[in-house]
Amino acid sequence: MSACSRTPNLSFEVPISFEIPQDYVWCQTPDDNNTYFWTSQGCGSFFPPKDTSYFQARLNPAGVSYDFQNDKFIGIPNNTDDLKDISLFLDETGAKIHRMERKNIGGFPMLISEWELSYVDTDEVTKTTRVNRILIAPLVDTNVIWIQFDFALPTNLEKDIPIWEHFESSFERNP
Which residues contact 90 (CB under 8 A, 6 or more apart)? Predict the structure, then answer.
């Protein structure tokens, strides 16, 4: 058997734990992106209902990777000083950045970001929503684990911010 015909072993473990609230249930969408959702309500036919907050996660989101040698996430701003990437991202998405922070948890690089995104509602009115995201580089090739928390629409900060804060602080409890 030639070396080219063998299937590579892509299994790896990232010894980082985090907590998604117990009342959130897991479901997978039938799309090709292997996106996983945790919602406080059941998933609809394809996506969680707009009136609930939810988590979504995937391995290797499109256009985002990690460069180990330069300790930098590729395809997304790494911090608020990353002006070239930020201006390009903001121009493309119309997003507003509330927070960007780099951390290392258990030896793994993480990027935490909090955004406000615009969207056009069904009545053609432009509204905003909050999206908070954590990227983790498991240091296997250029892989990135992407976990995002989408706030309920209309945004309910009093309810959703404590959920996000508990989730984010669960990373801090890693050895």
Answer: 96, 97
